[in-house]
Prior knowledge:
Layout: E1 18-24, E2 33-38, E3 41-45, E4 61-63, E5 76-80, H1 86-89, H2 92-99, E6 103-105, H3 107-119, E7 127-129, E8 135-138, E9 141-147, E10 156-162, E11 165-170, H4 187-196, E12 200-204, H5 219-229, E13 235-238, H6 244-257, E14 260-264, H7 266-277, E15 288-289, E16 302-306, H8 316-321, E17 335-338, H9 347-359, E18 363-365, H10 381-391, E19 395-399, H11 403-415, E20 430-435, E21 438-444, E22 450-454, E23 463-465, H12 468-474, E24 476-483, E25 495-499, H13 504-523, H14 532-551, E26 556-563
Parallel strand pairs: 3-5, 5-6, 6-7, 11-12, 12-19, 13-16, 13-17, 14-15, 14-16, 17-18, 24-26
Antiparallel strand pairs: 1-2, 1-20, 2-3, 4-22, 8-9, 9-10, 10-11, 20-21, 22-23, 24-25
Amino acid sequence: MKSFKPKFFGDNKGGGSLKLIPLGGVGDVTKNMYIYEYGNDIIIVDCGVGFPDEAMPGVDLVIPDISYLRNKKDKIRGILITHGHDDHIGGLPFIWPELQVPIYTQRLTAGFIKAKFTEHSLPKNKIFEVKFDDHLKLGVFEISFYVVSHSIPDSQGIVIKTPVGTIIHQADFKIDWTPVSGQVTDVNRIAQVGALGVKFLLIDCLRVEKPGFNKSEKSIEETFEKAALDTPGKLLITMTSSNISRMQQAINVAAKLGRKVALAGRSFESCFQVARDLGYLDVPAGIIINQDAIPSFASEKLLILIAGSQGQEGSALDRVANDEHKIIKLKDGDSVVFSADPIPSTESAQTALIDDLTRLGVNVYYSAITSDLHVSGHAALEELRLMVNLIKPEYMLPIGGTYKHMRAFSNMAQGLGYDKSKILDVIDGDIISVDNRGIKLDGRIEVQNIFVDGLGIGDIGKVVLRDRKLMSEEGIVVVVVRIDQHTGKLEGEPDVISKGFVFEEISEELLEDAREVVKNTINQQGRKVSDWRLTRRSIEDDLQKFLHQATERRPLILPVVVEI
């Protein structure tokens, strides 16, 4: 989708201009981060992470590129966070240490951020809680907030009054009149702001292709209960770890049916602890058990909330599916419920995980075959139309979706009477200039994905930023193995090819030893492999340890499995 340059509209009344620069979140569902700059003042809205796909081996997370901000740190007045999902807060532990500016957000979101900062040994004294009726003055920017419904409590829309007009930054939201959290989208407040005039609206567009309205989040509880009643064994439910409303409904079902609840996965445990401590979860006494106690209970008495809904490699559910989890073992009569649709780029990973679980013989519930397993937290078509009609902005920028969603939003807005030129079509790094005459594109800054890599996902104090240049300096080792798809046995010798890694004088001997490591890894599997991702990961882990011991270097390992 190409960017366009809309003409200026209206008379030029003079004055300065505001720069709005998306560093992430435009044309992409994740990695949300937006810069608002006027004169000597900058505010930032959101600071999220993206997640690696299969083309990013060895990468744990992807974060926005803040090169533009490095020589402007003294101008940054604060970071405003819309809600507590990782694609809006997950970049803070990696980016904030370089900026060290105040962070403003609602109570639950602040709790999640503080937990992340504790994990990364960062100070928490610049994380400030705000209330929905608070007003902030950050340089020339006057900030206020309003409540929106979403799949997590304390989600907010942000009103930004600037010298060139009022801007509304509306990240993820939905219109839910009966939300589990009780936080109904404040349409009255939104209409009041709209009546005063809104220059520019940035608005979530991820579910614009879904007609009508979303069902209420409360409908999920009945689906969970039916799955529990139909499951004679353990019931595992996976969802976004910070989906507190859905977590509450699972706990309600467990309490009603006499099941104990265990949590599996560090992300689940962390979000649960924060939400319970802050009073956002109603947890009956004695219902939560430690993971270690799972074997002590009959399967029909267990409900396990488990991380890994997107098929993340190495997640708790991924390890369960590959029989690698130390405590949770699946058997006939158990069920797994996926209460989260895949985000773009994770479809294949989630599908592979569902296949792995199905091969184990358990019942797997997912949205393609079972309705009402997931209710989106993002506004559907009629909800978006309602929001636009309440706000009545002059210009709009759809955010938080892929390019097809942005195009569909533009078509919807044109159906409401907006000229196509009033709906911006941009990419990350484009500079949007706003002044008294109107809005235009005014150049761009170069941005790239910044990769987070470490010795393990989420290792405390060991996560480091490594860009592609550093990866190339470490070197690459490609391993090609041919495996009989019926027996799981190695066919022939593994090929081990190094680029930019080993010294010539030791390369022949080292690579021969590496081949032996790979052969041992495959031979030790001892069973037919149903998921080649597990084989690739085992080769990568074992070879990484061997090469580090031999050379004290950590090359990028790229295992390739060829089925014969």
